[in-house]
Write a structure and sequence with these properties.
By secondary structure, the protein is α/β, with parallel strands linked by helices. It is built from 12 helices and 14 strands. The strands form 3 sheets. A 10-stranded mixed β-sheet has the order 2-1-3-12-11-4-5-10-8-9, sandwiched between helices. It has a two-stranded antiparallel ribbon with strand order 6-7. Strand 11 and strand 12 form a beta hairpin. Helix 1 crosses helix 10. The structure holds nicotinamide-adenine-dinucleotide. Nicotinamide-adenine-dinucleotide binds next to helix 4.
């Protein structure tokens, strides 16, 4: 029997509620698909700060490094916003990404038929949406140096550096190619090469690699146009490849095409070593502790973990089908409620999904 060791980081806010559902779901899947899964729970985020004075304790990071995969719920709360930047829960996320060298962030955006009416866009615009955003995650302007404030001038100034070397662009392009090959083989690389030198290097490097691969059809788009096209005709995209800053913004935009942030999973990967699988949403402090959260984004993240991280494809499919079945039977959490659906709590919808597995 295959044995896996995963680390579960429940974090803050709604994290413990959606993690509870995820644990039960993983246990049932492991039983049904004949594998053993050890779930090691560690503190991370605000809750880790409370106990250890840091959002990403070494012990947590070490355990993550030794695991087969990391499943993360969410971190953050307004009460930590006044802490020094490096002590805030969100800084723990950057530390985890750096520690595991997670340079590739993968966000699938797929419209589920039963939720077509939940999108703020017209049905005919979103019905064919099935795209993946591949975002570079540990380079670019979020990490570039020098950065800082200049205070010894007449008016205060601040600056950041947007920098990539070609090796960083090559490795994320290879990931996008690998993913595109399992899909429609179309990559749209998004940059701002009409204005930025760093984007020109991005475009030239992507082109160089993609041209060598006859299977791949590559197009380029400026980021402002990409934002417009995502709203105008999102069905045209298969794989969107982009840098850290542009990917951060475009993936949130793409995420909302599907209706609720409570539905969207993501994976952060490197070439070898454990990946981190997590919902796109934050800790939703406004509904934390009320058993109202939608656990599906975390369950779909667990499905990505099973498929990409553990190679348990059948179990992943089983979970996705169970989620679709429950939604098409008209069950929803409050964030997705429409006049005709039956609204369930976080744990209730979790139980419905478990029954379908
Ligand atoms: P958020 O994603 O937590 O919430 C935005 C809105 O969506 C809220 O109304 C919330 O109730 C709702 N929502 C989010 N997830 C939901 C779910 N699963 N089910 C139902 N409704 C859901 O974003 P925010 O309010 O801007 O941030 C709250 C905290 O989360 C902040 O401290 C922020 O820094 C942090 N955050 C963490 C992550 C992460 O852990 N990866 C990501 C984004 C924000």
């Amino acid at each position: 029997m295959k044995k896996y060791k995963i680390v579960l980081l429940s974090g803050d806010g709604i994290g413990p509620e959606i993690s509870e559902v995820s644990k039960k779901v993983l246990k049932k899947l492991s039983k049904n698909h004949n594998f053993d899964i050890e779930i090691i729970e560690k503190l991370f985020g605000g809750i880790a700060y409370e106990k250890y004075g840091t959002p990403a304790p070494d012990e947590t990071l070490d355990q993550c490094k030794k695991s087969d995969a990391v499943l993360l719920a969410c971190v953050g709360d307004i009460k930590y916003d006044s802490l020094a930047r490096e002590l805030r829960p969100e800084s723990g996320l950057l530390k985890l990404r750096s520690a595991l060298n997670l340079f590739a962030n993968i966000r699938p955006v797929k419209i589920r038929k039963s939720l077509l009416d939940s999108s703020t866009l017209k049905k005919e615009i979103v019905e064919h949406v099935d795209l993946i955003v591949v975002r570079e995650l540990i380079g670019g302007i979020y990490f570039g140096k020098p950065r800082g404030h200049i205070t010894n001038t007449q008016i205060p100034k601040a600056f950041n550096t947007m920098i990539y070397d070609s090796a960083e662009i090559e490795r994320i392009t290879e990931i996008a190619i690998k993913i595109a090959k399992q899909r429609n083989k179309k990559i749209c690389s998004v940059d701002k090469s009409n204005v930025l030198e760093v984007s020109q290097l991005w475009r030239d490097t992507v082109l160089n690699i993609a041209l060598k691969d006859k299977d791949i059809s590559l197009s380029n788009m400026y980021v402002d146009n990409a934002a417009m096209q995502l709203v105008k005709d999102p069905g045209q995209f298969d794989v969107i490849l982009t840098s850290n800053l542009f990917g951060d913004i475009l993936s949130d935009l793409a995420a909302m095409l599907t209706g609720s942030i409570g539905m969207l999973p993501s994976a952060s990967l490197n070439n070898n070593g454990p990946g981190v699988f997590e919902p796109v949403h934050g800790s939703a402090p406004d509904i934390a502790g009320k058993n109202m959260a939608n656990p599906i984004a975390m369950l779909l993240s667990a499905s990505m973990m099973l498929k990409i991280g553990l190679n348990e494809e059948k179990a992943a499919e089983n979970l996705e089908t169970a989620v679709d079945k429950v939604l098409s039977n008209g069950f929803r959490t409050a964030d997705l409620a429409d006049g005709s659906s039956k609204v369930l709590s976080c744990s209730e919808i979790g139980d419905k999904i478990i029954n379908e597995i």
